[in-house]
Amino acid sequence: MTPEVVLRSIVRLLPERRREWGQAMEAELAGLDSGRWRFALSCARGVLGRPETIVRLVPSLLVAGAAGIAVWLLAEIQAGPVRLEAIAMVSVLGVVAWFTRPTRLMGAAALAILGAEGLIFLRGLQGESDATAGIVIWTTMLSIYALALTRAPARGFAIGAAVAAAWLVATVIDPGVPTSTGPALLAIAFAAICARGRIAGLCAAATTALLIAVLIDGPLSLLSPWVANNAPPVYPPESVDRLVDSVGIWLFGTLIAAALGLAIRANGHANVTSAA
Predict the structure, then answer these.
(1) pLDDT of 219-238, one tens digit each?
(2) How far is CA 32 from CA 5, 22, 39, 43, in A?
(3) In this predicted model, what pLDDT tens digit does every residue of 13-49 receive, in sequence order?
(4) Are 66 and 119 contacting, i.e. CB atoms less than 8 angstroms apart?
(5) In the chain, what percentage of residues exceed pLDDT 70?
(6) By the 8 A CB rule, do 83 and 77 touch?
(7) Which of 118, 151, 201, 236 is the most exposed place for a label (fewest CB within 10 A)?
(8) Across the strands, what pairs with 226?
């Protein structure tokens, strides 16, 4: 490892409009007789501290971290056929994550949320002897969401996140809120109305559905006021609230995400056609 290699690797992280600056720094490094490592590391610190560089690195770091956790969870799956199917699922989602490669913080956040849900699903496969249908369904839903939300407008994502946060506050006030799909559907519709506009509304609705479903599958099922929908019976039954099965919210949200992806594609095609 040499200062030249370090600086060259860092320069590759710069956007196209900043590449000339990177080439100038490489040329300056080549002319130095001393302090070469200090100069290279100073340039690296400056590049890595830029918000646009951080956004470019976040997806790769998230994918690497999720891949490490996924390998550990896959090793915990006892049934061989289920493990092989789960490996196929992780491979497909990895390809989708590489294909999307979001360049904005919002897209990276969406990818992180979807990755968290994928890991929650893998954890649930431990002890399963037949999970083919579930693996196919979840792979399809997560892929559709990734392809749609990583290209969606930030405004719709922000509104969807705000509405999902309001739903979470409502669950704290009334633990009965997450025990049925009604409040979730109202939140999804409200997000779409607040966003205004077809693409922003679809993005807000899909984001709200995604966040609520992930909250039900993950954090809420670990807190004392609730138990997961598939948890064993508790006694007395009224001592806790049983969370609603999130599958309905997932399916509804996936349909919205699919519509969002088609709308974004159609909008892009229309812009290309009008420009021509």
Answers:
(1) 888 877 777 776 666 656 56
(2) 15, 16, 9, 14
(3) 777 777 787 788 888 888 887 888 888 888 888 877 7
(4) yes
(5) 90
(6) yes
(7) 236
(8) 241
Element containing residue 236 per DSSP (H, E): none
Indicate if the alpha-carbon torsion angle 210, 214, 216, 217 is positive or negative: positive
Are the beta carbons of 100 and 147 closer than 8 angstroms? yes
- Which pair of tokens denotes residue 34? 């001393």
Q: What number of CA atoms fall less than 13 Å from residue 125's CA on the CB side?
A: 33
In this structure, which long-range contacts are made by residues 215-219, counting pairs with CB atoms below 8 Å and at least 24 apart in sequence?
A: 215/164, 215/168, 215/178, 216/178, 216/243, 216/244, 216/246, 216/249, 217/117, 217/120, 217/121, 217/246, 218/116, 218/117, 218/120
Token readout for 69 is 């956790």
d(CA 158, CA 78): 40
Cα separation, 200 vs 154, whole angstroms? 8
Angle at 65 between CA 222 and CA 114, to 5 degrees: 55
Report the alpha-carbon distance of residue 191 to residue 142 in Å, rounded: 21
